[in-house]
Amino acid sequence: MASSIIVRMAQCTAPVRGHRTASAEADCPLCGGGGRYSGYSSYGYSSPSYSSSGNSGVRSSGSSGSARPRWSPASSFVSYTPAEVRALTPFRETIEKQAPLPEGRDYFLCHAWDDRAGSAKELYDLLQSRGVSVWFSERDISLGAPFLREIDKGLAKSKAGIVLVTPALLLRLKGESISDKELSVLLAREQLVPVVHGTTYEALREISPMLASRNGLNTEENTMAVVAAKLAELVATVPV
Q1: Taken in order 72, 73, 79, 82, is the CA torsion positive or negative?
Q2: Are 89 and 114 in contact (CB under 8 A)?
Q3: Of 6, 9, 117, 218, which one has the greatest count of Cβ atoms within 10 A?
Q4: What is the per-residue pLDDT for 31?
């Protein structure tokens, strides 16, 4: 029995390459087949807990390589991997339990200052076009307003957070920055979806192991438009 476990551990690529994206998990000779060795929970690679409903919030989409989470409408064009459904299900369950926030926003968008006119604005615009309300410093802090206080208000009235992880953000997190303060608050709330863009989870793990332990979405596997669609469905009203 012990030798069998050792062999299985040797086959798994989690400690070296991680399982933060669907392709990384699929490439693993052990976990790509749907199994996962529970002993890796100490590395932060264990699967998120599922709903007690018995189906983990998943509806079959007719393909072994894709799945439909229960919160995604049947008419949706978005395709999810099983790994993404597992990662997002606990987040969705928490959203459903939240009480409505007066004048609240769906998301607080945490980003590097350098990305404010580029990838951060792109993601913001895509979410807005889907009817998702987003607190975005470039739109919500007026000229002359106390910067930190406005950020504090934005964090307080947002259901959840998105962290746009880019090379610029990684540089900012190496030192003291506004992004670092925002991230500290969002990590404490445990309502956070990382969106990795133009970098990797491995690079993020070197700077912030805590953030890298959170499952999220990656533009290496999805376009920014598809990422926005998945984020929009994640906070939408439960389909009837």
Answers
A1: positive
A2: no
A3: 218
A4: 56
CA distance 173 to 165: 10
Whether 87 is in a domain gets the answer: no
- Is the pLDDT assigned to residue 65 strictly greater than 90? no
Inside any domain, residue 91: no
Token digits for 77?
A: 């064009």
Q: How confident is the model at residue 53 (pLDDT cuts 50, 70, 90)?
A: very low
- For 115-137, what is each residue's pLDDT tens digit? 999 999 999 999 999 999 999 98
Residues 145 and 41 placed together within one structural domain of the fold: no
Look up the domain containing 189 and give its range: 100-235
Residue 175, in any domain of the structure: yes
Buried b (16+ CB within 10 A) or exposed e, 203-233: ebbebbeebbbbbbbbbebbebebbbbbbbb
Which of 8, 232, 6 shows the shortest CA–CA distance to 126? 232
Residues 224 and 114 in one domain: yes
Q: What is the CATH number of the domain that holds 142?
A: 3.40.50.10140
Per-residue pLDDT reduced to its tens digit, 192-227: 999 999 999 999 999 999 899 988 999 998 999 999
What is the rounded CA–CA span in Å between residue 112 and residue 123?
A: 13
